[in-house]
Fold:
Amino acid sequence: MVRCTPASCSLWDQNCPSGQKCTPEDGWSWNECVPLDPEPDAPGQPCTVEDAPGNGGDSCDLASMCWDVDPQTHEGACFLRCTGGPSDPVCPDGTTCVLSNQGAIILCMPTCHPLMQDCPDSEACLPAGENFGRFACIAEYSGDEGQVFDSCDYANECDPGLLCAGPEAAVECDPNANGCCLPFCDTEQPGACPGAMQECLAWFEAGTAPPGYEHVGVCGLPL
Structure:
């Protein structure tokens, strides 16, 4: 049975009583005020979670959330939450707001370029969730899988340089899979895509790309 509990607080406004913070609960399905750690960890510091991200409180301060959590140790790092609002999120310079899980995740993560894949080891440069048109460094969990044409279920299950796209974008993909790992590409370098009949499809509509991102594309079958 799905638990239908209305959100009792706002992640954006942090409108809980003093000494509490608003955090996602029940697998990201709703928000709840929980006690704030009496000696909270600041953004960038190590942290712990009570259960798992999206299911209970953590040791981070009011402005941040424990993320990149090890499922065995329940340890991660405090990431600053975005401010502003979902239509106009704000993060410090050098970071961008990653919006995901229907607004349950609103975290500032380092900005990057998908053609350069200029993120630290174990991270991939990926679209910033619902903040379309932005890219951020996100921890990737591809393991031994996540290679070109491998099936994927989540955005960060592909190797760096690859995107979990729709399986209809390549004849080599499993048509019954939820997603398929396909490469980002440079629209000014035709013929670089590995799949049969694939082309480098522009990520942005003409004239809408942020400066420096005009040539970002992803390999797919022509529309």
Observations:
- Residues 20 and 34 are 5 Å apart (CA to CA).
- The two ends are 40 Å apart (CA to CA).
